[in-house]
């Protein structure tokens, strides 16, 4: 929920609490209208052009270096943030509401440069944390009981109150989740394998494959949830007005514009007092005069930062469905695989053919509120069709990486991940589960990271 990298075709991209740059207007000022707001959304959310640059956002949970189950106090986290914010990094450093750390890379001209720059930043970040007795952990959800919300700002106060209306899933997402978000250029204006319409569709069909292959959050608040990706199940439990994708078969700009205007308003910025929005107010209602005050273009910019679909167009495409990954450099694998399947033209066409049949399972609603996305989050690659698609996609990506100028080390890392997990029908969550469960029939959790909790039903993470 903070700054995204800005590929070359996108406008400047601030933190979620900030405001994007709008298209330059000429001529006399006019009062905003529904048509003018629609024009703004269409103009800033799909910046088309040759796919050239790549970025990544890495969210991390923060744990005690000696005892990862020991609660890290809010005062200790705040003290660490004071030190970390002054580190000499290429990436933007920010803090999430629950105290998670995030690095948002600068837009890089290639996958190799992106990996090199962010890897260097991670060395600096880990070193600074180690000096404080802390470490970052790559898991999609916090396995222990979380502490208080660290950030107390009007935006996050209003967000939590809004999300609480639909249940605790939004609160868990804010305080207890972490991800790897891949940012890619939207693509050409013209039709074709690298056109923005095709890349938009590919992102939504490949999305559940990425969820399943990189699922890494089977535990939440000390309890096994029954999901390989509890983090993804939390997003699906948030009300669709906030988290659902627009209709996939519609023209992307038009569909997203309608989605933005019809989405509920989460908060109304104010000089003083709470930022709570009236219940049931959509942005379209506000534009038509139904809000607490006249709406402005800055309100639209802010509204865009409060929408959380699995693929968010912010000039570039922001793929938000991948759990944080284990290990010091596990994040490199989903970044490399995703970039290879999008930015190598041959692989992009192959990947689209591989995942296109999955659309038949995407029944019951838009992503992530449908059967395909739920199956991916619950079963990971234990789902045979997702395992087949993921295995083929990894093979395609491995063929593409040399063409993208990637070195042998990263290619070998992707291949090792595929051998350990994808080809075996496993995901990182399965490693975590192996440490938590005694697999003999009739036994519950064994000693391990989740042993102090109980096994819950499949639909209980929220």
UniProtKB/TrEMBL annotation:
Pathway: Amino-acid biosynthesis; ergothioneine biosynthesis. Its EC number is 6.3.2.2. Keywords: ATP-binding, Ligase, Nucleotide-binding. Residues 1-33, 441-462 are annotated as: Disordered. GO terms for biological process: ergothioneine biosynthetic process; glutathione biosynthetic process. It catalyses: L-cysteine + L-glutamate + ATP = gamma-L-glutamyl-L-cysteine + ADP + phosphate + H(+). It is an enzyme of class 6 (ligase). InterPro entries: EgtA_Actinobacteria, GCL_bact_plant, GCS2, Gln_synth/guanido_kin_cat_dom. It comes from the Bacteria. One of its GO terms (molecular function) is ATP binding. Residues 1-15 have a biased composition (Low complexity). The keyword Ligase applies. The keyword Transcription does not apply. HAMAP family: EgtA. Belongs to the glutamate--cysteine ligase type 2 family. EgtA subfamily. Catalyzes the synthesis of gamma-glutamylcysteine (gamma-GC). This compound is used as substrate for the biosynthesis of the low-molecular thiol compound ergothioneine. This is Glutamate--cysteine ligase EgtA.
């Amino acid at each position: 929920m903070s700054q995204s990298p800005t590929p070359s075709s996108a406008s400047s991209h601030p933190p979620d609490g900030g405001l994007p740059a709008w298209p330059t207007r000429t001529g006399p000022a006019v009062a905003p209208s529904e048509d003018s707001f629609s024009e703004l959304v269409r103009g800033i959310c799909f910046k088309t052009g040759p796919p050239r640059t790549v970025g990544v956002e890495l969210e991390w949970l923060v744990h005690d270096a000696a005892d990862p189950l020991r609660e890290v106090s809010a005062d200790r986290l705040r003290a660490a943030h004071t030190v970390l914010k002054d580190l000499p990094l290429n990436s933007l450093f920010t803090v999430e509401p629950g105290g998670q750390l995030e690095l948002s890379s600068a837009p890089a001209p290639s996958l190799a440069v992106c990996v090199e720059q962010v890897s260097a930043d991670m060395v600096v970040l880990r070193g600074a944390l180690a000096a404080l007795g802390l470490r970052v952990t790559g898991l999609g959800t916090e396995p222990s009981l979380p502490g208080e919300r660290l950030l107390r700002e009007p935006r996050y106060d209003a967000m939590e109150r809004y999300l609480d209306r639909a249940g605790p899933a939004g609160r868990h997402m804010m305080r207890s989740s972490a991800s790897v978000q891949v940012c890619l250029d939207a693509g050409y204006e013209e039709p074709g394998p690298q056109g923005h319409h095709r890349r938009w569709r590919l992102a939504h069909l490949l999305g559940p494959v990425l969820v399943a292959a990189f699922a890494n959050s089977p535990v939440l608040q000390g309890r096994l949830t029954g999901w390989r990706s509890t983090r993804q199940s939390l997003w699906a439990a948030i009300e669709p007005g906030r988290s659902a994708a627009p209709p996939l078969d519609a023209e992307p700009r038009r569909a997203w514009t309608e989605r933005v205007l019809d989405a509920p308003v989460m908060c109304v910025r104010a000089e003083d007092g709470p930022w709570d929005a009236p219940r049931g107010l959509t942005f379209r209602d506000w534009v038509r005069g139904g809000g607490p005050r006249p709406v402005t273009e800055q309100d639209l910019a802010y509204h865009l930062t409060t929408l959380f679909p699995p693929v968010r167009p912010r000039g570039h495409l922001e793929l938000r469905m991948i759990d944080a990954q284990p290990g010091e450099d596990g994040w490199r694998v989903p970044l490399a695989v995703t970039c290879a399947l999008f930015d190598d033209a041959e692989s992009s066409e192959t990947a689209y053919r591989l995942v296109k049949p999955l659309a038949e399972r995407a029944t019951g609603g838009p992503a992530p509120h449908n059967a395909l996305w739920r199956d991916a989050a619950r079963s990971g690659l234990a789902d045979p069709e997702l395992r087949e698609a993921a295995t083929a996609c990894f093979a395609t990506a491995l063929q593409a990486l040399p063409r993208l100028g990637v070195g042998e080390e990263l290619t070998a890392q992707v291949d090792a991940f595929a051998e350990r997990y994808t080809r075996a029908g496993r995901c990182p969550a399965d490693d975590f589960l192996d440490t938590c469960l005694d697999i003999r029939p009739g036994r519950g959790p064994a000693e391990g990271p989740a042993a102090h909790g109980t096994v819950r039903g499949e639909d209980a993470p929220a």
